[in-house]
Amino acid sequence: MNKHNYHNLEQFYIYPQYIDTYPFKKHLHNIEAIVKTNPTDFFTLNPKTYYFFKMPLCGHPQKISLVELRKRIETNDPLKLYCRICKWLINSGITYEQLAKHYSVNNVRPLSDVHYRHHPVIFTCPDCGEDTPKREMRWVLNHLKNGESFTKHCRGKCNSIGMKHPKLVPFWDEKRNKISIFQVPANDDHLYHRKWYFLCAVCNQPINTPTTAYNAVINTPRCIRHKIKSGTSFAEMAIFFSFARCLSAFPYIELNHRYKYYRHREFDIFVNVTCHDSHHFFAVEVDGIHHRNTADKDEEKNQYAAENMIHLERVRDIELADVNLKNFNNMIQRKSRDKAELNQIITELLNRFLRWLSALNMEKDQFQELKAAIIEEIQHVDVIKDEKAIWKQLNHLGKKLLKDDPKLKPIFEQLREDVRRELGDFITVTEQDIKRPFVCSKCGSTWEQYVKAVVANFRNSKRKATGCPTCANKNKELNAKLKKEAFTLRKAGFTQKKIAETLGKHPTTISSWLKKFEAF
Questions:
Q1: Global pTM value
Q2: Which UniProt keywords apply (predicted)?
């Protein structure tokens, strides 16, 4: 080699005897090949033989001849002054340093020797630190070049059911599943087909029947005692909640919701008490307005209960007051649909249940313990205070929530802050069994009203009326007073615009008032 022609390229040469001084890593660069290929003396190189040099713009090793390297430098083409790997990453959303962090130390080939196709590679997730094998570099690199996070392609902990669905972690029964939730890949088979064991979200006890992870995501896992099914009214949920709260701790009592006793026929709430090796049954039916057309079926159920020694109680909707059932007297007739009325109904049901228990000839200590729990529940029945806990029993919220309707956002935002925070996930657009506290967006005053009424007023008004009744033109006494003032001001020669400014009303409202006045 003529050293005068190539001496300026010595700065890019990699001396094998000093290989430890270079910032090269074994899983990124083929250090063994560099040591075997490069002579210890730069000036003994053959200009047309390929050796390892540091590429001028990136500093990464690449096999190239002196002739080719000098030619590239003289043409000054940036694309040709990078190593092969860096060329892949030009104008992409990932740098060489970032790719190097993803490239696992467990790869068979160093990164510098990997081809775009046909070479299997292993990536290390920067979030969970676990390896993910890929059949070819291009499968993931194409996405990384577009700026995507590798977490999306991770098949380690990041892709586990535990990471994808963290709310399932406390309910995962690792003992019976025999695997950690963070080791189960969140693929179609494990999410939608294979069934797993979970713990009850209410009592934290193992659930006997396994279910799919997807079902556990959309329906919080609950054991049979604490599982409320879809289509359940709030009254039914509240009654079940009180029974479950005071009876679930006793192993000799089995509490079920929607207990099927024959094919599709079922009792809303069914209590099975084991006493002296025999079973005693207590059931509650919560009859909604649709029972107006099911009197025959209700009477059949009453007869079935009587024939099978099942003590049945019925809670009847206000609309069923004139619907009689033959030969049946264990009824509690509702006088309204207000939630507050349920406190009295639940108290009466628990008292009837206690009287029924007292006739079972239970052991004295056992009965006293059970009696104390029921009395404790009777003293603390408050469906308004427990509303959030009662709603949480329900797996499916089928009705449209107020917070989910963008057109009704002004109404939802007027709900008092604590109500929005605690009950926003349960208040529906058509709710009309309890008056909610609203804070007027105009004057700041607080008033109470059914959500359905506020929504109806908002939808029916031309200007989308919001605020308290006074600000929304719904205070009849105040409006009558303001109308008189408007008539007086009109007689005094005031214009409609001036009257509107004086009374704090919209000109359209003043105009409609004055039309009626002028008609007389």
A1: 0.49
A2: Coiled coil
